[in-house]
Write a structure and sequence with these properties.
Elements: H1 10-15, E1 29-33, H2 41-51, E2 56-59, H3 61-66, H4 68-76, E3 80-83, H5 96-114, E4 120-121, H6 132-138, E5 142-143, E6 148-149, H7 157-167, E7 173-177, H8 186-200, H9 207-210
Parallel strand pairs: 1-2, 1-7, 2-3, 4-5, 6-7
Helix pairs in contact: 2-8, 7-8
Bound molecules: zinc ion.
Length: 212
């Protein structure tokens, strides 16, 4: 499956209704993909703390291993750490067995190092496969897609503003990145999102509330 423009089409959401596409309640969820990253994750954590926002970090297993203390910090700050594969690979390049092993290896590393059991998964590049629901069911996990892609990784604040101005809803799941690609604009992006949410009278929820 391809990734989509800012908000995936309705027919997709209906067909893959076992996946989570938007918040379960009228509260907005912030998510950050591809970290942890030593340049951006600490800044993001500080900014989220300022606003008292709890987010989901879809972490890459290799980064979890490389930046163990950052991963620990995400968890201790009360955010959710979720699985974004071990090596940020497109799932359609893997066999069912390989997908299973890839996801399990990230779970194991979180369990062994941090005694942490991740509940959520997001496929890199939004490319999911038909066998994914069954695999995640077996692990007691849910696939979390999104309803608002900010394209922050293009490192252009005007694109992020365009996305938020046009696609923000009261139940949006917003995708940002804690990655070097978005380093220049990520804090401004978060601030713009928070201001927009306040301006519209929307509110921000926690992972546990939004992903019921
Ligand atoms: Zn990613």
């Amino acid at each position: 499956m391809n990734s989509y423009k800012y908000n995936p089409p309705k027919v997709f959401k209906k067909f893959f209704n076992g996946f989570i596409w938007e918040s379960a309640i009228p509260e907005i969820l912030f998510t950050f993909d591809d970290g942890p990253d030593p340049l951006t994750t600490p800044r993001i954590l500080k900014e989220l703390n300022n606003y008292d926002i709890k987010a989901v970090f879809f972490c890459v297993g290799e980064n979890i291993k490389e930046y163990e203390s950052l991963t620990r910090e995400i968890i201790s700050e009360g955010h959710s750490v979720a699985n974004h594969t071990m090596n940020h690979i497109k799932l359609n390049r893997l066999s069912t067995k390989e997908i299973r092993e890839n996801i399990l290896s990230v779970n194991k590393s979180l369990e062994n190092t941090f005694n942490y059991k991740p509940l959520y998964f997001r496929p890199p590049y939004g490319r999911f496969t038909f066998n994914l629901s069954k695999i995640l069911d077996d692990f007691g996990m849910r696939n979390v897609m999104w309803s608002l892609l900010t394209y922050d990784y293009k490192n252009d604040i005007n694109i992020v503003k365009f996305a938020l101005n046009n696609y923000l809803r009261d139940n949006s799941i917003i995708v940002f990145h804690d990655s070097k690609k978005s380093a220049d604009i990520i804090l401004d992006s978060i601030r713009f999102a928070v201001n927009k949410i306040n301006e519209k009278g929307f509110s921000i929820g926690t992972p546990a509330e939004c992903l019921k």
